[in-house]
Amino acid sequence: MPDEKLRITINGKVVLCSRDETILDAAKKAEVRIPTLCYDERLEPYGGCRLCIVEIKDFPKPVPACTTRVKDKMVISTETDEVRRMRKNILALLLSNHPNDCMRCEATGNCALQTLSYEYEVDGTRFAGETWNLPIRNDNPFITYDPNKCILCGRCVRICNDVVMAGTIELTGRGFDSRPDTSFGRPRSLDNCEFCGQCVSTCPTGALIDRKAVGRGRAYEMTKVKTTCPYCGTGCNFYLNVKDGEVVKVTSDFEAPVNHGNLCIKGRYGYDFIHSQERITSPIIKKGGQYVESTWDEALDLVAQRLGEILQEYGPSSVGAFSSARCTNEENFLLSKLVRTVFKSNNVDCCARV
Amino acid sequence: MAGQTKTRPGTRKVSRAGKKAKATTASRSKAQSGVQAVKDLTIKVCMGTGGLAAGSQDVIDEFAAQLRVCGITADIVKKCVNKTGCRGFCAKDVLVEITLDGETAVYQLVTPDKVSRIVQEHILGGDPVEQWLVGPEYHAFHDKQTKILLKQCGQIDPEDINAYIEIGGYEGVKKALSQTPFEVIEEVKSSGLRGRGGAGFPTGLKWEFCSMSSEAVRYIICNADEGDPGAFMDRAIIEGNPHSVLEGMIIGGYAIGAKEGYIYIRAEYPLAVGRLEIAIEQAKKRGFLGKNVLRSGYDFEIRIKQGAGAFVCGEASALMRSIEGKRGMPRAKLWRSAVKGLWDKPTVLNNVETFANIPLIILNGAEWYRGFGTERSTGTKVFALTGKMKNTGLIEVPMGMTLREMIFDIGGGMTGKNTLKAVQTGGPSGGCIPARHLDLPVDFDSLASVGSMMGSGSMVVVDQTTCMVDLAKFFITFTQHESCGKCVPCRIGTKRMLETLTRITEGRGREDDIDLLIELGNDIKNASLCGLGQSAPNPILSTIEFFREEYEAHIKYGRCPANVCKSLRQYLISPEACKMCGKCSRVCPSGAIKWEPRHTAELDKTKCVKCGACYDACPFNAIM
Question: Which fold does the domain A132-275 belong to in CATH?
Answer without folding.
Answer: Alpha-Beta Plaits (3.30.70)
